[in-house]
Design goal:
Blueprint (H helix, E strand, L loop, with lengths): L1 H6 L4 E3 L4 E3 L3 H34 L21 H9 L4 H7 L4 H10 L11
Antiparallel strand pairs: 1-2
Helix pairs in contact: 4-5
């Protein structure tokens, strides 16, 4: 980024260190040194992280995000009577989802988890 600013003739003022990076030779050297220091720090952070993960794994600790548990109470539980009423009337699941203001996939998953199966219409 500093290189881009210098090419466009933009002076960068770093207030904390009281530095001005313009197009001069000393500014270019300073920018190069700062860039090199940042690159070395990134590599050291990566190395420390890799070592810490390897140590944790060697100690038998599970790595990564823990698997979530399924919620006991679901969003649609409070509308169960309403949903069952719509199903008894033969309203489609997609239409029911609109009526209870949720996405169809949310309704399908809720019905599956609550073991609710709509009655199939008999063909005459």
């Amino acid at each position: 980024m500093l290189e881009c600013c210098m090419q466009r003739g933009i002076s960068v003022h770093i207030a904390k260190q009281q530095m001005v990076l313009d197009g001069s030779m000393s500014s270019r050297i300073t920018a190069t040194v700062l860039g090199l220091a940042a690159e070395i720090e990134r590599e050291l952070i990566s190395l420390r992280t890799t070592e810490a993960l390897a140590k944790s794994k060697a100690e038998g600790q599970k790595l990564g995000r823990p698997k979530g548990q399924k919620a006991i109470h679901l969003k649609l539980d409070e509308k169960e009577a309403e949903i069952r009423g719509y199903l008894a009337k033969g309203i489609s699941k997609r239409a029911i989802a609109k009526l209870v203001e949720c996405s169809p996939s949310t309704l399908y998953q809720w019905m599956e988890r609550r073991h609710i199966h709509p009655r199939k219409k008999s063909r005459v």
